[in-house]
Design goal:
The protein has five helices and no strands. The chain has about 110 residues and is mainly alpha-helical. It has two domains: about 30 residues; about 60 residues, no CATH class.
Length: about 110
C-alpha cells in the first residue's frame, strides 16, 4: 500500500468519524425528528390557514387520537418552522396556547 492510499484512507476514516459524531450529537436534531405519526394533524383536518373553530376541532380530535404531548410537539415544530411567517406563526402560537389551557393539566 502506497503512502497516498494510506493517507487517502485515513482522510476517509476521519470524515466518517466526524459524520458519525455529528449524528450522535443531540444539538443537530431537527424539531420534527421525534414525531411518530407523519401527517396525523392533516388527517384530523388541521390546516394553519383554516379558521379558529376548524383548527381547534381538529386539534381536539388529534389530542384524543394521539395524545397531548405528541400534538404539542407537532404544533411546536410547525411554529418553529413558521416563525418568520407572520400570520401562520401567530396562529400556531395561539393554537399552542389553546392546547396548554385546554389539555395541559391532563397531559
Amino acid at each position: 500500500m502506497s503512502k497516498e492510499e494510506r493517507d487517502g484512507r485515513t482522510e476517509l476514516q476521519k470524515r466518517q468519524a466526524e459524520r458519525s459524531k455529528r449524528k450522535q450529537d443531540r444539538h443537530h436534531a431537527y424539531p420534527s425528528s421525534g414525531i411518530k405519526h407523519a401527517g396525523s394533524l392533516i388527517q384530523q383536518g388541521y390546516r394553519v390557514d383554516e379558521g379558529q373553530d376548524r383548527r381547534r376541532t381538529a386539534l381536539n380530535k388529534a389530542v384524543h387520537e394521539y395524545g397531548y404531548r405528541e400534538v404539542v410537539e407537532k404544533v411546536n415544530a410547525l411554529a418553529v418552522m413558521n416563525k418568520n411567517h407572520k400570520e401562520n406563526g401567530r396562529r400556531l402560537r395561539d393554537d399552542l396556547e389553546y392546547l396548554r389551557t385546554e389539555f395541559g393539566d391532563s397531559g
